[in-house]
Amino acid sequence: MATAHNSDACPPAVIPLIAERQSELEALCRQFHVRRLELFGSALGGVFDTRHSDLDFLVEFALLPPGDYATAFFGFKEAIEQLFSRPVDLVVLSAIRNPYFLRNIEQSKALLYAA
Fold first, then answer.
1. pLDDT-based confidence at 11, cuts 50/70/90?
2. Pairing relation of β-strands 88-92 and 55-61?
3. By C-alpha distance, which of 72, 63, 104 is closest to 90?
Protein backbone atom coordinates (compact mmCIF):
# COMPACT_ATOMS: atom_id res chain seq x y z
CA MET A 1 0.00 0.00 0.00
CA ALA A 2 1.26 3.50 -0.79
CA THR A 3 1.93 5.63 2.23
CA ALA A 4 1.79 9.37 2.53
CA HIS A 5 2.21 9.76 6.27
CA ASN A 6 5.52 10.76 7.80
CA SER A 7 6.30 12.57 4.58
CA ASP A 8 6.80 16.27 4.01
CA ALA A 9 5.74 15.98 0.38
CA CYS A 10 2.21 16.14 -0.98
CA PRO A 11 1.35 14.90 -4.45
CA PRO A 12 2.46 17.57 -6.95
CA ALA A 13 -1.09 18.47 -8.00
CA VAL A 14 -2.22 19.32 -4.46
CA ILE A 15 -2.96 22.97 -3.89
CA PRO A 16 -0.73 24.96 -1.50
CA LEU A 17 -3.58 25.23 1.02
CA ILE A 18 -3.29 21.48 1.66
CA ALA A 19 0.49 21.24 1.34
CA GLU A 20 1.03 24.01 3.91
CA ARG A 21 -0.99 22.12 6.51
CA GLN A 22 0.08 18.54 5.73
CA SER A 23 1.58 17.83 9.16
CA GLU A 24 -1.53 19.11 10.98
CA LEU A 25 -3.74 17.10 8.63
CA GLU A 26 -1.75 13.94 9.38
CA ALA A 27 -2.11 14.57 13.13
CA LEU A 28 -5.89 14.86 12.71
CA CYS A 29 -5.94 11.64 10.70
CA ARG A 30 -4.22 9.83 13.56
CA GLN A 31 -6.47 11.45 16.19
CA PHE A 32 -9.67 10.44 14.40
CA HIS A 33 -8.57 6.91 13.34
CA VAL A 34 -8.34 7.64 9.61
CA ARG A 35 -6.73 4.79 7.66
CA ARG A 36 -6.67 6.56 4.30
CA LEU A 37 -7.39 10.08 3.08
CA GLU A 38 -7.48 11.23 -0.52
CA LEU A 39 -8.26 14.56 -2.13
CA PHE A 40 -10.43 14.84 -5.26
CA GLY A 41 -12.42 17.45 -7.10
CA SER A 42 -11.61 21.05 -7.95
CA ALA A 43 -8.62 21.20 -5.59
CA LEU A 44 -6.84 18.91 -8.06
CA GLY A 45 -8.36 20.05 -11.32
CA GLY A 46 -6.88 23.52 -11.65
CA VAL A 47 -10.21 25.28 -11.13
CA PHE A 48 -9.94 25.71 -7.35
CA ASP A 49 -11.18 29.12 -6.19
CA THR A 50 -9.29 30.04 -3.02
CA ARG A 51 -12.17 32.24 -1.85
CA HIS A 52 -15.19 30.06 -2.62
CA SER A 53 -14.31 26.43 -3.31
CA ASP A 54 -14.87 23.68 -0.80
CA LEU A 55 -12.53 20.72 -0.38
CA ASP A 56 -13.51 17.18 -1.34
CA PHE A 57 -11.97 14.27 0.57
CA LEU A 58 -12.38 10.52 0.24
CA VAL A 59 -11.90 8.94 3.66
CA GLU A 60 -11.54 5.45 5.09
CA PHE A 61 -11.63 4.94 8.86
CA ALA A 62 -10.23 2.11 10.94
CA LEU A 63 -12.80 -0.44 12.11
CA LEU A 64 -14.69 1.22 14.96
CA PRO A 65 -17.90 0.47 16.87
CA PRO A 66 -20.90 2.30 15.31
CA GLY A 67 -21.06 5.04 17.96
CA ASP A 68 -17.33 5.65 17.77
CA TYR A 69 -17.51 5.70 13.97
CA ALA A 70 -20.05 8.52 13.96
CA THR A 71 -17.99 10.48 16.48
CA ALA A 72 -14.84 10.00 14.37
CA PHE A 73 -16.59 10.97 11.11
CA PHE A 74 -18.24 14.15 12.36
CA GLY A 75 -15.32 15.11 14.58
CA PHE A 76 -12.87 14.73 11.69
CA LYS A 77 -15.12 16.68 9.31
CA GLU A 78 -15.40 19.56 11.77
CA ALA A 79 -11.67 19.52 12.53
CA ILE A 80 -10.59 19.70 8.89
CA GLU A 81 -13.15 22.43 8.15
CA GLN A 82 -11.55 24.44 10.94
CA LEU A 83 -8.03 23.59 9.74
CA PHE A 84 -8.70 24.81 6.21
CA SER A 85 -11.28 27.51 7.10
CA ARG A 86 -13.73 26.31 4.48
CA PRO A 87 -16.51 23.77 3.94
CA VAL A 88 -15.46 20.16 3.39
CA ASP A 89 -17.22 17.29 1.64
CA LEU A 90 -16.16 14.10 3.37
CA VAL A 91 -17.06 11.01 1.32
CA VAL A 92 -16.76 7.41 2.46
CA LEU A 93 -15.94 5.12 -0.46
CA SER A 94 -18.29 2.34 0.68
CA ALA A 95 -21.21 4.79 0.68
CA ILE A 96 -20.87 5.71 -3.01
CA ARG A 97 -23.61 4.07 -5.06
CA ASN A 98 -23.35 6.08 -8.28
CA PRO A 99 -20.86 4.31 -10.61
CA TYR A 100 -20.19 7.49 -12.63
CA PHE A 101 -19.34 9.47 -9.50
CA LEU A 102 -17.12 6.63 -8.30
CA ARG A 103 -15.29 6.43 -11.65
CA ASN A 104 -14.76 10.20 -11.62
CA ILE A 105 -13.26 10.07 -8.13
CA GLU A 106 -11.07 7.07 -8.95
CA GLN A 107 -9.61 8.87 -11.98
CA SER A 108 -8.81 12.11 -10.19
CA LYS A 109 -7.82 11.43 -6.58
CA ALA A 110 -4.54 12.12 -4.80
CA LEU A 111 -3.36 10.26 -1.72
CA LEU A 112 -2.71 12.54 1.27
CA TYR A 113 -2.45 10.01 4.12
CA ALA A 114 -2.33 6.26 4.62
CA ALA A 115 -1.80 4.53 7.96
1. low
2. parallel
3. 72
Phi and psi, residue 14, nearest 5°: -75, 135
Residue 6 has pLDDT above 60, yes or no: no
Task: Write the DSSP string, the chain.
Answer: ----TT-S---TTS-HHHHTTHHHHHHHHHHTTEEEEEEETHHHHT---TTT--EEEEEEEPP--HHHHHHHHHHHHHHHHHHHTS-EEEEEGGG---HHHHHHHHHH-EEEEE-
Q: Which pTM was predicted?
A: 0.85
CA distance 70 to 113: 20
Per-residue pLDDT tens over the stretch 32-52: 999 999 999 888 877 888 788
Non-local (6+) Cβ contacts of 4 within 8 A are: 10, 11, 111, 112, 113, 114
